[in-house]
Amino acid sequence: MISSNCRVGIVGAGTSGVYLGSLLASQGYKVDVFEKSPVPRTDGCGILLVGSGMRAVNEGNPKLCQKLLHSGTPVKNFEFRNLKGGVANSESVSYDENELPGMLIHRKAILEALLEELPQDCLHLNAPFVSATQTEKVVTATFANGETWEGDLLVGSDGIFSKVREYVVPGVEPRYLQDIVWRSVVEDNEFCTEGNFIVYMRGRGIYVNFFDLGNGYTHWGFFIEKKQTESEKGLPYPHDVGIPTEELEKVPEAARAVIKATPAEQIVCNYSYDIDPLPQLYQGRILLLGDAAHAKSPTRARGMTAGFEDALALSRHLQEGSNIDAVLASYQSERLPIVHEYQETSREISRKIGRSRKKKAA
Ligand SMILES: Cc1cc2nc3c(=O)[nH]c(=O)nc-3n(C[C@H](O)[C@H](O)[C@H](O)COP(=O)(O)OP(=O)(O)OC[C@H]3O[C@@H](n4cnc5c(N)ncnc54)[C@H](O)[C@@H]3O)c2cc1C
């Protein structure tokens, strides 16, 4: 096991960074998590946490897994509808007796449960990462609030627009997936219930999904195909945030009513991006984890899951390894092929159900 004197700095208190921090702190490592926001970002909407993500939580922290099982609802059925409301396909999901289900959960509930597992003195808020330098064995990081951190391993879990990534693979630009997405969570006891995941299949330039979050809440996501103008390129979200009425009119009345019932201030909107598979996950003593390492299209719902798997794998390699350089090499050999597969297949599905299919048909 790597000595518990090992100091690990983690940039970004999203789900990947906080899960890693909680695992490493429980193993006795000296952990500091730096978050640029004044409070951890508990915004966001519903998440499908697939079975492998639940297993990654259960293996690292069974108590946390139990909390997640009580925070949402197991996915029980996928229903694919056309834009007239007709059901094209319906697939029910069954689970073996001891199998962990795929869970539909509010991101806020997930992050809050994770934060309860992270010792409070590990978390540094209002600390935007600015730069890093490293020698053979020591990394130094500086933050915009004037803090400096020095330690043995710096982990960048600072999301798709990662600044830490520049020190591992410079020059990576997020790639626009040609969709704007609006999302929210709304009270609903009728339209989408009992673990249902409803997809209005892509057509006429839109794609919409709804899923039950349990306790009378439903998540919805509304995707519109849209090119970015030159001035919009690379921006996280657009400035005009309302769903255009003519696009909303394309979905059937019952679905539209759920979206319309959502208070405007509770709707989040962003451009959809992924990144190309990276050739490496670390450089010296700086490592990338979660979306910073492998942001992907949401088509396979592997984003958050992959971050949990990363965190579990790194904590295991640190326990089993004898020196940090060997740990990082073995971590990368295990994770790189897996995250590449997630990225490539997610992008492929996104292309198949999106514009390229439309072009073929034309
Ligand atoms: C439309 C959509 C739907 C999705 N649906 C699903 C789904 O159903 N299932 C699923 O598993 N995944 C889904 N995902 C993906 C999932 O949300 C992400 O993969 C996951 O949240 C990434 O977590 P993370 O901790 O790696 O990054 P983030 O959640 O982005 O966290 C990064 C953190 O770093 C902080 N930060 C950023 N820069 C700095 C800095 N310079 N200094 C300090 N802190 C910084 C940020 O404030 C943030 O707190 C979806 C994504 C989208 C866009």
The computed structural class is alpha/beta
User: What is the chain-wise order of helices and strands?
Assistant: EHEEHHEEEEHEEEEEEEEEHHEEEHHHH
What's the arrangement of strands in the largest beta sheet? 6-5-14-15-16-13-17
> Helicity, in percent?
25-40%
Descriptive account of the structure:
The chain is an alpha/beta fold. It has a domain of 184 residues: FAD/NAD(P)-binding domain. 31% of the residues lie in helices and 28% in strands. It contains ten helices and 19 strands. Strands 6-5-14-15-16-13-17 form a seven-stranded mixed beta sheet, covered by helices on one side. A six-stranded mixed beta sheet has the order 8-2-1-12-19-18, with helices on one face. Strands 3-7-4 form a three-stranded antiparallel beta sheet. α1 packs parallel to α8. The termini are far apart. 43% of the residues are buried. The C terminus is likely disordered. Bound molecules: flavin-adenine dinucleotide.
